[in-house]
Specification:
Shape: elongated
CATH architecture: Orthogonal Bundle
Oligomer: single chain
CATH topology: Arc Repressor Mutant, subunit A
Number of helices: 5
Largest sheet: 3 strands, antiparallel
Strand order of the largest sheet: 1-3-2
Radius of gyration: 17 Å
Strand content: 15-25%
Order of helices and strands: HHEHHEEH
């Protein structure tokens, strides 16, 4: 049984939402790949990952590759459940939005 949809403030920040979206589609991802995908600095990505890790949403694994220490990240089961519930809640909210009548829009 799926958990009920809920808005998750840990996940909702744009950077963390993007991280969860990327990690939801892979088994694990390297830190550098996430940094490039989000186009942020190491420190900004580290800050987002620390918040996700403290919430129990992300698993961090460090391993040597080609003589260098690499950091690999994956969504923990709790993170995957929280992300699915958060996206469901966003979809529920989006479905409540009335479509704009044709011809109306934001003046630009």
């Amino acid at each position: 049984m799926r958990p009920p949809p809920r808005f998750d403030t840990v996940i909702h920040a744009p950077g963390r939402l993007q991280i969860c979206a990327i990690l939801s589609s892979v088994v694990e991802a390297e830190f550098a790949m996430l940094r490039e995908a989000l186009k942020v600095s190491d420190s900004v990505l580290s800050k987002h990952l620390k918040q996700l890790e403290e919430a129990g949403y992300v698993v961090v694994r460090k391993a040597a590759l080609d003589g260098r220490q690499r950091t690999w990240l994956s969504l923990a089961p709790a993170g995957r459940s929280a992300f699915v519930a958060h996206v469901a809640e966003l979809n529920r909210l989006a479905a409540m939005t009335a479509p704009m009548p044709s011809g109306e829009g934001v003046a630009g």
